[in-house]
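Lab meeting notes turned into a lecture example. A postdoc, R.K., suggested we walk through two folding results consecutively so the class can see how the record format repeats. The first protein's sequence and structure tokens come next.
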Amino acid sequence: MTKIPGAREELDRAARWLRGQVRSVVVELTGDQDLEVALPEAPAITYWEEPLRFSYSVHVQHAMNGEPGVDPVQGARFLLVSAGWDVTVLRDVPEVPTNIEARTGEFRMSLLISQARDSLTVTGRTPVMALYEPRGLHLVSPECARCRRKLTALQVLRRRSLWGGQEPQPRRELWWECSGCGWLGYQHHEGERLHAMRRLKGREGNCFFCGEDQSNVAGEIWEQDGELRDWVVCLDCGTGNARRVGRAPDDGRSPG
């Protein structure tokens, strides 16, 4: 993938600024002047749709000092507003942890304050940025491994466990099917080796997660810890998982 000049450096600067903001909030509410807030070594992929977009997340969990007469919710709100954050208290019910959401520009911060347990959890996220140029909109179709016809791109979307109104996202693999012989499979990246998948029939073809009929496909069987396993993906909801399919043969033969 081709890097976008200066994008990673800009995202790293954003992460350092966010770390400072999170540290200020936690120090103010806990009194821990020696607090160190770590950053991940690299940003994580937030959106898999091209172009891939990345962000940093910062997470701190800490005990509060619990000073009598001090309202940590009001203290957190005042501190964030003074620093230029837009603050919303989503939940403030007695005996229930208070949830505070804050944003400034594309930065996000979430606070969970439990006065009953004198505990504080703060999570922050940087803006989401593309670090690499998108792959070509018109991918080069590989040849079918079975009949040598040109393959057709197949879109497989992740439709489960989407948060905050997030749209379905394409799986990270490049999926292909053959309109001639019915071959189905995927590549990890454009130009790499094709991996064949087989359509499952009967009950095992129905997705356990979304309930769609005859939507499961499975890859090659491999041996692990004395058992045979394969990888199943639902073409409707995009969920993939490894499953056990039996015990490995004792005579040293290859599974299959």
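The second example is placed directly after the first for contrast:
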Amino acid sequence: MSADLHLVSSAAIGSGEIRDLVVSLGGEPQPAAGAPDVTVLVRGDGAVVVYPFPPDEPIRAAALREECARALGAPPRTRIVLEVLPGRESEWIAAEIVLAAADRWPLAIRDFGEAVITVAELYRRLARRRSGFFRPEDREAPLPGRRRTRVDEATLLLPGGVTPERFARIVRSLGGRLAPDDRADAVLERAGAWVWVRLRPPGAPPVDPSAAALHDAVLGPPPYTAVVLEIFEGTPSQLLAAELVEAAAEHWPLMVRGGSGQAMTADDVRARVAMGAADIFDP
């Protein structure tokens, strides 16, 4: 059974703008009689149908109108309804739409339990839950992998023009999620494998003098953007981190600083994967 998620904004947003946002994420128009700007975003087994309402159409439920006004700090002007089909994948699609909309317009969110929350509260839920982040009654869980014992660390160095936001898109393209937390900015999870990602703004990360010439040849001169990977124990996590390195290397030149401080190129990482190394990032 599907569930409805209501987004309310203090901005006057045209229905066509909402349609275009969903289409930019890979959605398709699905016009209906009297509702020409309905869109649907399908990915894997998940799907979300987006129904925009015209700006300044009254919100008749007084309690909802007042709660949204408090959350927004201004009178609500536009309402959007997301019909979220059952399943975890649909929840993630809905979260992607909400966060993309929040990048453009002020938003309040009425979740599946009819509680009105802010975008900041949604980020907190995303950081603590693997699913059910639109259900306030669900018990919040710590970040995946928090209780695991052994963690390897590797640092990717990229040209300074690569912002944390651009790298975060690579993480999300692999199925990862943003997880603003005291330990991680993003989490990549797959079939029992875990990689936490910490994103750093461009700076001058320390480079071993003996490897400085190699870094200059591959990356150019500093500043560099550093991305720290916490790789949880087990071969699957090592391979998942290597997949992230490969995905990043398709976009930018990079170097990898292994757990013991050694410098590796993307080709070095590929070679260790090919040889079946048990510890890819700490030769």
